[in-house]
Amino acid sequence: MKIYNFKGFWVIGLLTLLISCSDNADNALADNALDGGRYFLENCNQGDFKKANIYLLDNPTNQSYFKAISNTYFTLDKEGRQQLRQSSIQINEVKAIDSTQTIISYQSSMDTVPHQLKVVSTPNGWKVDLKYTYSAK
Fold first, then answer.
1. Are 38 and 126 in contact (CB under 8 A)?
2. What pTM was computed for the model?
3. pLDDT tens-digit readout, 31-43
4. What is the C-alpha separation between 21 and 60, in angstroms, rounded?
5. Do residues 73 and 82 touch, judged by C-beta distance below 8 A?
């Protein structure tokens, strides 16, 4: 009888540990600008806009641009979405404006057009500010 209770204790403890650790790594806060931008871009390319939204600076303008990005993704056919999921991101330059703002220049393996992404430091980690990317410079 005591052996069964002891095994049950270990099984319950192991399950509790697995459940508590399962989702936290997927939603990690970005500790630096490069991670914030990379997590955002990778999740967008994978079509996981719920996770990508975690790395987006929350304001109405950014949400509007973000919705346009997700709508564009879902208008692609199955092959187009698959190509985007398999594409890679090449970081060309990381330029710190100051201690709270960084510009990341990158391009996708799907196109040769360079893009820029602004990432800002917040109390909730580094977040992407799409206003910089989509507004006139």
1. no
2. 0.78
3. 999 999 999 999 9
4. 33
5. no
